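Cross-posting from the chemistry board since nobody answered there.

I work mostly on the small-molecule side, so proteins are not my area. We synthesized zinc ion and want a rough idea of how it might sit in this target. Sequence and SMILES are below. Is it possible to get a predicted 3D structure of the two together?
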Amino acid sequence: MATRQKTSEDAGHARYTYRLRVSSTARTALLAEWDRCRWIWNECVAKSRAAHAHNRASPGDKLTCGPAQLDKMLTEARARTPWLREGASVPQQQIIRDFAKSRSKALKDIDKRLPMRQRAGMPRPKKKREALPTLNYTQRGFRLKDGRLHLAGGIELTVVWSRELPAAPSSVRVYRDVAGHWYASFVVATEVQPLPATGAVLGVDWGVKETATTTSDAHDLPHPQHGRKAQAKLTRYDRMVARRKPKTGQASSKGHREAKKWRAKTYAKIARQRQDTARKWAKKVVRDHDTIAVEDFRPKFLAKSTMARKAADAAIGATKTALIEMGRKHGRDVRLVHPAHTSMDCASCGARTKHALPLSERTYTCTACGVVSPRDKNSARVMLVRAGLNPAGVEGLRPPGALIPEAA
Ligand SMILES: [Zn+2]
């Protein structure tokens, strides 16, 4: 059975983010650290591209560009470049790790894509004027003393403690957003906060019109139209960015950078609203159910997907993440179900239709057992079955032969 189980034994963690007050000395130091990290990232990109080109030209002699090779590259680069050695090693090692992660994720996506014609999604160079500074420190790269954050390399920052940090953090990310504000985001191990057992289970299917269709009508989540109003803005900024785009070889203008900043701010706002909706929904679902079977949705990187599809994918992604996190926080059993054929199987008897239903077909009719049910509700029940849970008694299941009033 293609399910992965997340149980309460998983050590959870949460991020606690605070504004930073950054002196001009500290800012200069942070930006210098970022310059070095950015340089390393770009070296990684170059190395990875060179390896790819080499492997293409001579497939018999494969070059690899995994974490081990990249670590070696960093050690060598630090040995021969005093400028790199002036920087702390922790954030430099972390950016190598981030690169390796981002690269292996992209490679997996490419493997799945057929035919393999492009390498979209592979990590790209970080440009000086465009990439926002982000520095990651593991435990040995920072400490908190007298309420101040001390980073490796002697950088001292004042944290605005807007809420209490519940435990000692295991790592911190220091970053600047598009508006120019600096933040520290601490990772803290969290303890499971159990909720009372409910005896209820829930199946969740993701979709475009309804972000989540579930086996309980009270827990369906319609697609939030956050993008709607912001969409007009985005389109305007998109055009502005395109119009102000510099010619190849020319430096980007102030107007171009500004338009990009506005666009980024709008995106960030939509993402925040999305996350807020997702968390509220996840909280309700987790409170009301002990076990939740959910489609393990992975967005496809289709070049031609519509704006609506992209918005739906982003909403699903945020909602799925919120559900997994909330489940972990409260010790609920959230099971991820492989999405293959979930809309073709009958939740009642397990028969599979010969052809995928066209998206316009909203009703699932089983030719084997005669059950008739709304398409997405059937899929949600299939999640339960696939996760080894019993859908019997879940509301909304109609006996064979019963007719469903056509939705207007
Ligand atoms: Zn059936």
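Reply from a structural biologist on the board:
Welcome over. Reading the output above for you: The mean pLDDT is 85. The helical segments are 24-57, 67-80, 82-85, 89-112, 226-244, 254-288, 307-329, 375-386. Happy to explain the token format if needed.
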